[in-house]
């Protein structure tokens, strides 16, 4: 197993566990705290004195949350293709929202979260393909043929 694949599998496992804790917490303490801090940071250092729209900040953070997941999935499993990762990201996001709607009363399931998470998955998939390509070029096809585009 190539070093990149081995490293990325450990990182994927760790990131998935952290993401599960954040997304499936009965009350959204961690998620709400991150959104509040991001809004405060934007208000302090951000745009032209306008208050950042909370929905936009949360959507961008939702998308950003799924970028590493998709990129690490593609690096962890060399035979996996980006369309499969995109579908898995969509399915995972939809599953999280269903669990939040059905089992976690303090959480709110929203379609916009599924869309944002899927966009993040697509961005992460593009990043993962780019990294695969750069690793393949750097190592040469003979040394690491398990990381094609």
Question: What descriptors fit this protein?
Answer:
149 residues, mainly alpha
How many β strands by DSSP? 0
Count of discrete alpha- or pi-helical segments spanning 4 or more residues: 5
User: What series of H and E elements makes up the topology?
Assistant: HHHHH
> What gap, in angstroms, lies between the N and C termini?
17 Å
The main pleated sheet reads as: none
Q: Extract low-pLDDT stretches.
A: 142-149
Shape: globular
Total count of domains: 1
Q: What is the alpha-carbon Rg in Å? A: 17 Å
Helix content: over 70%
* Overall average residue pLDDT: 88
Strand content: under 5%
Provide the structure class. mainly alpha
Topology (SSEs and partners):
Blueprint: H1 3-23, H2 29-45, H3 54-76, H4 82-103, H5 111-139
Would you give an account of this structure?
- The chain is mostly helical and 149 residues long.
- Helix content is 75%, strand content 0%.
- It is built from five helices and no strands.
- Helix 1 runs antiparallel to helix 3, helix 3 crosses helix 4 and helix 4 runs antiparallel to helix 5.
- It is globular, with a radius of gyration of 17 Å.
- The C terminus is likely disordered.
Summary?
By secondary structure, the chain is an all-alpha fold.
């Amino acid at each position: 197993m190539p070093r990149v694949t081995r490293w990325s599998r450990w990182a994927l496992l760790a990131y998935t566990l952290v993401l599960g804790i954040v997304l499936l917490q009965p009350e959204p303490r961690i998620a709400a705290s991150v959104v509040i801090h991001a809004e405060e940071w934007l208000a302090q250092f951000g745009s032209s004195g306008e208050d950042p729209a909370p929905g936009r900040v949360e959507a961008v953070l939702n998308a950003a949350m799924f970028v590493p997941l998709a990129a690490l999935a593609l690096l962890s499993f060399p035979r996996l293709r980006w369309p499969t990762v995109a579908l898995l990201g969509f399915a995972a996001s939809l599953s999280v929202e269903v669990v939040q709607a059905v089992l976690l009363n303090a959480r709110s399931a929203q379609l916009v979260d599924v869309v944002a998470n899927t966009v993040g998955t697509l961005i992460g998939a593009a990043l993962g393909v780019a990294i695969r390509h750069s690793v393949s070029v750097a190592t040469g096809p003979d040394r690491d043929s398990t990381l094609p585009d």
